[in-house]
Amino acid sequence: MGRPSELNVAVSDPARWLGERQHAQVLAPKLRALADETRLTLVLLIAQRPRTVKELQEATGLSQTLVSHHLAPLREQQLVEAIPKGRSNQYVMCCQALAEPLRVFASLAALDPRAVAACSNSAPEGAGG
């Protein structure tokens, strides 16, 4: 940790903090939905191309009930959308909803050039001696 004189803390503006807090409240549920490995797998599959529940079942080996259970929070957070197609639904990505958390993390990385340098100079986990 750096000396106190090197710390760059921007908490003095309550309006900004509330804005960031509200932003976090919007992003947290989306990130929780993506934090589950099964749901993330479903998102990655749907990102390749629209898929039905049956196709997601076949790709993951999960039951129809379990696939539907995991799709529910993704739909609630508007990360995927169900489009009626024949007698079933096809699930497609909602790119804007997924792009928002990515934009936030990208902007966080750009806030402090020293942090970017520190992260890019770190050895990968398990590397070295």
Task: Write the topology of this structure.
Layout: H1 14-35, H2 37-48, E1 51-52, H3 53-60, H4 64-76, E2 80-85, E3 88-93, H5 95-111, H6 113-121
Antiparallel strand pairs: 1-3, 2-3
Helix pairs in contact: 2-4
Q: Could you characterize the architecture of this molecule?
A:
The protein is mainly alpha-helical and 129 residues long. The protein has a domain at 25-108: Winged helix-like DNA-binding domain superfamily/Winged helix DNA-binding domain (Arc Repressor Mutant, subunit A), CATH 1.10.10. It has helices at 14-35, 37-48, 53-60, 64-76, 95-111, 113-121; strands at 51-52, 80-85, 88-93. It has a three-stranded antiparallel β-sheet with strand order 1-3-2. A hairpin with a 2-residue loop joins strand 2 (80-85) and strand 3 (88-93). Helix 2 crosses helix 4. The chain is elongated, with a radius of gyration of 20 Å.
What are the salient characteristics of this protein?
single chain; 6 helices; 3 strands; 63% helix
